[in-house]
Amino acid sequence: MGFRAATLGRLSLSEPRIPLLRFLMSDFLKALAAAHGTPLYAYDLDIVAASTAALRAELPDGARLFHSFKANPLPAVARQVRLGGAVAEITSEGEMEAARLAGHDLREALFGGPGKTEAVIMEALAAGVRWFSCESWTDLGRVSAAAARVDAVADRK
Q1: What is the secondary structure of 22-35 as a DSSP string?
Q2: What is the pLDDT of residues 103-123, one digit of tens each?
Q3: What domains does the chain contain, in order, with CATH numbers?
Q4: By the 8 A CB rule, do 106 and 100 touch?
């Protein structure tokens, strides 16, 4: 049982809210809540795939599409956007593990965030990460020193 983009496409916040209320009170959503409890986040992976493809189509050739694990680390969503050509954008060891479990190639991942310790950087390098976003000269120095210790070179695409 599932809903499709065509069904959701008719529902818009610019339309009267009664149709949206009917959808929110639908038997489908009541069944989901009964089966899984509330609060509940439900995703239609067909819509995720279509949205990823639509975004990809709008990007210029050569642009890289990143999926933020901070925004949504759910494995099924992360796998779906990976299938659509997105790569992982991660900021912690937990997000790095979630990306790996979702099948993302960590050699393509971007590791960002201001709290990168030497230990975290070393773990990321050991896992294959070669793309880092540095928020300061200190952060850049920390990443550069760690990379030099393990003879790793940042990938420049």
Answers
A1: HHHTSHHHHHHHHH
A2: 999 999 999 998 889 999 999
A3: 5-36 (no CATH), 62-149 (3.20.20.10)
A4: yes
